[in-house]
Design goal:
Elements (H helix, E strand, L loop, with lengths): L1 E8 L4 H5 L1 H6 L1 E6 L2 H10 L15 E6 L12 H12 L5 H16 L5 E7 L2
Antiparallel strand pairs: 1-2, 1-4, 3-4
């Protein structure tokens, strides 16, 4: 399993990304099986991985810059989103799975105003 951290920033400030305490305050992490699952999740949230990446970041295997801002799912549509996620990934339907996506969605709703979003594949 791979840990992918979604990090919102006002701008692509590498000092903030390399400061683990600052980064921890600005991220939400989900556990996925592969980069393919990350791609599916991003598509369901209205974005995709862009062509660029970031210079070396502390404790990160790979970084991803997103082409579009992620769109939080409204409460009425969350169960549809979750069903699509399960169908497209063949992931197991359980409280951990539901909870991590619910937390990610809440994170996205709370940070709509931020300008930059990166996803980091954590070296855990």
């Amino acid at each position: 399993m791979k840990h992918f951290s979604f990090v919102y920033l006002d701008d692509l400030d590498f000092d903030k990304l390399n400061d683990l305490e600052v980064r921890f305050e600005r991220q939400e992490t989900v556990v996925l099986a592969s980069e393919r699952e990350l791609t599916v999740l991003l598509q369901l949230l209205g974005s995709k991985i862009g062509a660029g990446s970031l210079p070396e970041i502390v404790d990160v295997l790979k970084s991803y810059i997103l082409e579009e801002s992620l769109t939080a799912i409204n409460e009425q549509d969350f169960d549809i989103f979750y069903s699509d996620w399960l169908r497209l990934t063949n992931r197991e339907n359980n409280m951990d799975e539901y909870g991590q996506l619910l937390h990610l969605n809440s994170f996205l709703q709370a940070r709509k105003e931020k300008q930059e979003m990166v996803v980091l594949s954590e070296a855990i």
